[in-house]
Amino acid sequence: MQIHKPYLLFLGDARDPLAAKTAQGVVDWRAEWCVGQLRLPGCNADCRIPDLTIEAAIARGARTMVVGVANAGGVLPGHWVATIVAALAAGLDVATGLHVRLGSIPAIAEAAARHGRQLHDVRISDVVLPTGKGTKRAGLRLLTVGTDCSCGKKYAALALERGLRAAGLQADFRATGQTGVLISERGIAVDAVVADFIAGAAEWLSPANAPDHWDVIEGQGSLFHPSFAGVSLGLLHGSQPDAFVVCHEPTRTTMRGVQFPLPTIQQVIDRTIADGALTNPAIQCIGIALNTEALDDAAAREVLERTGRQHGLPCVDPIRIGVGPLVDELLRRFPRR
Amino acid sequence: MQIHKPYLLFLGDARDPLAAKTAQGVVDWRAEWCVGQLRLPGCNADCRIPDLTIEAAIARGARTMVVGVANAGGVLPGHWVATIVAALAAGLDVATGLHVRLGSIPAIAEAAARHGRQLHDVRISDVVLPTGKGTKRAGLRLLTVGTDCSCGKKYAALALERGLRAAGLQADFRATGQTGVLISERGIAVDAVVADFIAGAAEWLSPANAPDHWDVIEGQGSLFHPSFAGVSLGLLHGSQPDAFVVCHEPTRTTMRGVQFPLPTIQQVIDRTIADGALTNPAIQCIGIALNTEALDDAAAREVLERTGRQHGLPCVDPIRIGVGPLVDELLRRFPRR
């Protein structure tokens, strides 16, 4: 995937900061690619980079406008089309992580053709996937799983890639969602593949590798989310993880987008082992990652300490305190040969 | 969906009878729509209807050639294209239940355009689906679940629709796969929707209904199948079944298409209740349906009696002995108001 950098991030009228998590993810992990953000009236997200018009962004070198806001269903609201057309007319390519193809919207297709610009549908893969086979592959795999959507699975996986590499191990982040694909410039949004191929996509993403190589696979959704659990299960089966980390947002009270209570961390551990054992009977939980962004430092340290003690596992916030204890636990359980 | 009847069923070079289960399903449930079958050299399936050339089928009134053979991955082998083009040239429409769109194959698209024929991609729905919400809907629902793919879930559901209607209840078969869609002329192949929408498709398929109305929903795959369990889980969550029937083929030793052992019926009951409780805590197993086609009558009766006794549930072969005991059990547990 060749998306020209740097980017202007379009936040639209995101209803809350989590709705702009694609933009925020690119800013947090690839700040050097982002010249600014473009927000519409009513936008409730802010990535804390300069607010720029399309023209000002181009003056700062922007080559592509990345639509950094998503919603359940992955549709493109009609009132965003004018901004996208204006970006194309002004000389920017456009990339999105929505389910809908940009080129399927006539005004956008026409503007791209007229101005010779590229459209990137990051969520939609052109790979011809096989169905999953369940056959064991060489190499080690870690999957981040969640009590919910949007609770830190991608950040934990990206931080673990860094942490494992810093510890001298071979490790690769494997993106399974549109933001991860934008950040790592490879991968497949598994929630956008045809349903029969979820496990097959996970197998394709994480092929056989050296025996001591870690694939750190970005999890999706939750086995307990009534909208998306099928994606989570197929990803778990295809990933065949040797190890997993449970990700959780301790201040959330209902699951994202639906009126369902959150499962407990222990329920997620138990179900992940029960389901994951189908393709890897040795699957084990090696730790917990909490997203404590909503808490002050004292409250964060208290909940991290308490949660770790309750479960007898290392418990970190990958952003606030880093993944050191998770890397140590992984090395302890899977010693280098 | 308007597919002109009657049909010539194309079996290609199906590697075994199960590979032609789409054709066999249409023959078994809609024999009056089928004038004959067309088989290529090497075909190991036989639907026991007349072998006809395209011309002979047209002479008997055929309007559409239905590709009645499927494979894991849902691709169209290149050596079938000539037969499909010949059917179009001779005046037949063509329908398939594959993942690939017929119109995406240039020779087929061109032949259809030249001869003014229709192409039907039964597995691919044009419905714009919502994501699943998990909200409880009025009406009663029964889902057939399986120890494996291709073990009798669709036949059990179709037989239950008939049996419930014969008992005076309101009941509708809800098709979730290409063969079910061909038979019932409505529904959605849930294995072919974008992964984020599996549960949403199941909710769409089985909308709110009268309090004593039964939707009998065709199951897909198995929660224990390493290729397709994600589809099975999303379908279970979206269907919110009040009742389920476990379907099983008692002579099978490994799961279809992969080297995995079959789960036990009890494992399927326990996991279906554990997973299904997320969207319907009152979910219960009301019986077992065995596909005993491979057994003689005495062996079939023995395994039915033994399996029912082991699990304390009614156990039938819906085709060999009918679904009477399942209907009775459903009426006992869900008495009419």
Summarize this, please?
In chain A, 33% of the residues lie in helices and 16% in strands. Chain A is built from eleven helices and eleven strands.
Any overview of this molecule?
The structure is a homodimer. With about 325 residues, the first copy, chain A, is of the alpha/beta class. Chain A folds into two domains: about 5-120, NAD(P)-binding Rossmann-like Domain (Rossmann fold), CATH 3.40.50; about 140-335, Rossmann fold. Helices cover about 35% and strands about 15% of the residues of chain A. Chain A is built from eleven helices and eleven strands. In chain A, strands 7-8-6-9-10-11 form a six-stranded parallel beta sheet, with helices on both faces. In chain A, helix 9 (about 265-275) links the parallel strand 9 and strand 10. In chain A, helix 1 (about 20-30) runs parallel beside helix 6 and helix 3 (about 80-90) runs parallel beside helix 4 (about 105-115). Chain A is globular and about 55 Å long. The interface of A and B includes residues 199 and 257 of A.
